[in-house]
């Protein structure tokens, strides 16, 4: 499932940057044949290969693995049932592209929410 999220994000970024697989192969040192297999779901990349691709795309690796445009239904289907969720009910992880001033506010909200979740977790461990 994470391979699917990874290669979906790689293809999206290539498209956004008007970059070809050949350019990515040159920048990452990963063969074009492996990239083709990867982006069609036929290859299983190692962490080292994923790091090389992320560096070539100038994108943090966690972003390529966690963020996705896929909806919950698609993720559940990929997981073969229910996609595991590390967040409590009522919380959702999102990815967005925002202007700096709006991103600043969203980051603040994220910090507040992470603190609230840590506090909730600490309270539950006390019982």
From TrEMBL:
<protein>
    <submittedName>
        <fullName>Conjugal transfer protein TrbA</fullName>
    </submittedName>
</protein>
<dbReference type="InterPro" id="IPR010982">
    <property type="entry name" value="Lambda_DNA-bd_dom_sf"/>
</dbReference>
<feature type="domain" description="HTH cro/C1-type">
    <location>
        <begin position="10"/>
        <end position="64"/>
    </location>
</feature>
<dbReference type="GO" id="GO:0003677">
    <property type="term" value="F:DNA binding"/>
</dbReference>
<dbReference type="Pfam" id="PF01381">
    <property type="entry name" value="HTH_3"/>
</dbReference>
<dbReference type="InterPro" id="IPR001387">
    <property type="entry name" value="Cro/C1-type_HTH"/>
</dbReference>
């Amino acid at each position: 499932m994470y391979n699917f999220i990874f290669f979906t994000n790689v293809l999206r970024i290539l498209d956004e940057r008007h970059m070809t697989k050949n350019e990515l192969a040159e920048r990452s040192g990963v063969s074009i044949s492996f990239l083709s297999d990867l982006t069609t779901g036929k290859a299983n990349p190692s962490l080292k290969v994923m790091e090389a691709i992320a560096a070539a795309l100038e994108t943090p690796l966690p972003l390529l693995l966690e963020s996705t445009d896929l909806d919950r239904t698609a993720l559940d289907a990929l997981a073969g049932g229910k996609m595991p969720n590390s967040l409590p009910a009522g919380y959702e992880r999102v990815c967005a592209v925002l202007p700096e001033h709006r991103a600043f506010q969203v980051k603040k909200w994220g910090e507040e929410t992470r603190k609230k979740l840590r506090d909730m977790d600490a309270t539950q461990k006390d019982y």
